[in-house]
Design a protein that fits this description.
Distance between the termini: 63 Å
Helix content: 25-40%
Strand content: 25-35%
CATH topology of the largest domain: Rossmann fold
Largest sheet: 12 strands, mixed
CATH class of the largest domain: Alpha Beta
Strand order of the largest sheet: 4-3-5-6-7-8-9-14-13-12-10-11
Number of helices: 13
C-alpha cells in the first residue's frame, strides 16, 4: 500500500478542472446540508436572500455571508449543547475539540464518525507528504487536552509509522524519550523545538549527534515558514523541517509542506479557499494577498461556510514541482497581530525574521505594542548571547529592524541569555497594550 510518493495519487494529482468539479459537487451538497439542518445558516441565508440551489458555480459562493469567530461564540450553546451552527444532533457526534481561546472564548469543534475518519485520512496524507513512512518512529509532542492537533497522531499511525504518544510534557521528560527511543520524527511548535534543542545542548546532548531526529514537523505559530526560524531550527537539529497549518474550526492540520517547502498544500477536496480584501471583503484573484476565507466541503457536524480565518496570506493554484495539484497557501500572519507604525504595516513575522537571523541574540523574543501621544509604537525584548555589550546589541537590533521593516522600535530591551520565558506549546510573543491605553484614557 502507498508505495509511491503519494498517499492518494489520483486525488492529489487531479487537474484543476477535475478538482474544481469535485469541489462544486461537494459544495452544493454541503450548502444543502447546512441549510436543512443548521438553525443559524437557515436564518442567516434567508435574511440575506440566498439559497443553496442558487449555487451553480464556485464563484457564486460569494453571494453568501461571512462567518467568523464571533459568529461561533455567539451561537455556541444556543438552542442545544452544540449550538446553532451545528447541523447534526448530539447523538451523531463522537468527538469534540476546543480552540485555544487565544482570540477570545474557546469555541467547540464537533465531529461525526465520518468527519473524524476523513480528518485522520487527511492527516495521513499530510504525514506521507512530509515523508513519514512505516520505518519511522514518530513522537507526537502536542497537547492532548481538548486540542484538535492531539488526535492527529492517529493519522500518523495510518502511515504505518511507530507512534509514541507523548503529549505536552516537561523538556526533561521529552528529551528522555528522544534519547531512549531514538525516534526519527517529531511534531511540536517552532518555539518549543528551539527551546528543546537549547535544553538538550545545556544537558550535554547534541541533537545532531546523540539523537536520531531526521524530520521535524511544526505548527501553531508562524515560524515554520519563516526562513530565519527554519534555519535556526535546522542549525540546532540538523533535520528537515516541515511546516503544517491547521485550525480548530475545521480540523487539525489541513495544509502542509511537501519536499520542496514552497507553500503549504491545502486539502482542497475538504476546504474551498477564497482570499478577500481586508477592508471591503471583496474577492481577490488567486495569488493576491488578503484574508484567507475557508469553506468546508465535507464536514457534517458543523459546516463552516465562508469563515474569515483572520489569517493574512495568499493561495497559489499552479501545479507544484512535487506533482501535487492542490493549491499552496502562504500565510504571512494574523490580522489581529498586524499593527501600523508611521503608516507602515508591521507583522510580527517580520520581526521574527530579523531576530532569528541575528546570531548575536537568542531565538527568544517578545513584542509589546503600545500607544504614546496617540501614536502606535512597538518594543522588542531580546537576549544577548554574544560577547558584545548590551548597548552594541541594542544598536544592532534597532538597525536590523529598521532595514527590514522600515520603522525602528521605540524601545529595545536587551536581557541576559535564558531570562525570557520559554514555552512548551504556542508561545505568546505579542503583547498588545493599545486597548489598555485607550481604556485608561477613557477613565475605565
Amino acid at each position: 500500500m502507498h508505495k509511491n510518493k503519494f498517499w492518494n495519487e489520483e486525488l492529489e494529482t487531479l487537474s484543476r478542472k477535475q478538482l474544481e468539479a469535485l469541489q462544486l459537487k461537494s459544495l452544493q451538497e454541503e450548502l444543502a446540508h447546512a441549510y436543512a439542518n443548521s438553525p443559524y445558516y437557515k436564518r442567516a441565508w434567508d435574511e440575506a436572500g440566498v439559497h443553496p440551489g442558487d449555487v451553480k458555480t464556485l464563484a457564486e459562493l460569494t453571494k453568501f455571508p461571512f462567518i467568523d469567530k464571533k459568529t461561533q461564540r455567539d451561537t455556541q450553546g444556543v438552542g442545544s449543547f452544540l449550538g446553532e451552527l451545528a447541523a447534526v444532533p448530539e447523538e451523531d457526534v463522537v468527538f469534540v475539540s476546543t480552540s485555544s481561546g487565544s482570540t477570545g472564548v474557546p469555541t467547540l469543534s464537533p465531529f461525526t464518525a465520518q468527519d473524524f475518519d476523513e480528518f485522520q485520512d487527511t492527516e495521513a496524507r499530510l504525514f506521507w507528504q512530509a515523508g513519514i513512512r512505516p520505518k519511522d518512529r514518530y513522537v507526537h509532542a502536542l497537547n492532548f487536552a481538548l486540542y484538535v492537533g492531539g488526535p492527529d497522531v492517529i493519522g500518523a499511525q495510518r502511515t504505518g509509522a511507530l507512534c509514541i504518544w507523548v503529549g505536552a510534557v516537561p523538556s526533561e521528560r521529552l528529551l528522555f524519550v528522544l534519547k531512549t527511543y531514538q525516534p526519527t520524527a517529531i511534531w511540536t511548535s517552532p518555539s518549543y523545538i528551539i527551546a528543546l534543542g537549547e535544553k538538550a545542548l545545556q544537558s550535554g546532548i547534541d541533537p545532531k549527534k546523540d539523537l536520531s531526529i531526521k524530520k521535524i514537523i511544526v505548527a501553531g505559530e508562524m515560524g515554520g515558514s519563516i526562513g530565519a526560524t527554519r534555519q535556526a531550527i535546522t542549525d540546532i537539529w540538523g533535520a528537515e523541517l516541515y511546516d503544517f497549518y491547521g485550525l480548530s474550526d475545521i480540523f487539525g492540520a489541513c495544509a502542509a509542506h511537501c519536499e520542496h517547502h514552497d507553500g503549504l498544500h491545502i486539502a482542497e477536496d475538504h476546504i474551498y479557499v477564497e482570499t478577500v480584501d481586508l477592508n471591503t471583503g471583496a474577492l481577490l484573484p488567486p495569488g493576491e494577498r488578503g484574508e484567507l476565507v475557508f469553506t468546508t466541503l465535507r464536514k457534517k457536524a458543523r459546516p463552516i461556510i465562508r469563515f474569515r480565518t483572520g489569517d493574512i496570506g495568499r493561495i497559489d493554484i499552479s501545479p507544484c514541482k512535487c506533482g501535487r495539484t492542490h493549491g499552496r497557501i502562504y500565510v504571512d500572519g494574523r490580522k489581529d497581530d498586524m499593527f501600523i507604525v508611521s503608516a507602515v504595516n508591521v507583522y510580527p513575522s517580520d520581526v521574527e525574521y530579523v531576530i532569528r537571523a541575528l546570531p548575536e541574540i537568542s531565538n527568544e523574543y517578545t513584542i509589546r505594542i503600545f500607544e504614546e501621544n496617540y501614536t502606535c509604537k512597538y518594543e522588542v525584548n531580546v537576549e544577548n548571547v554574544s560577547d558584545q555589550s548590551d548597548t552594541a546589541i541594542h544598536e544592532l537590533v534597532v538597525n536590523a529592524l529598521k532595514a527590514r521593516i522600515g520603522v525602528k522600535p521605540a524601545i529595545v530591551n536587551v536581557h541576559p541569555n535564558g531570562t525570557l520565558e520559554r514555552s512548551t506549546h504556542k508561545a505568546k510573543r505579542v503583547i498588545d497594550q493599545r486597548t489598555e491605553t485607550v481604556a485608561k484614557s477613557q477613565g475605565e
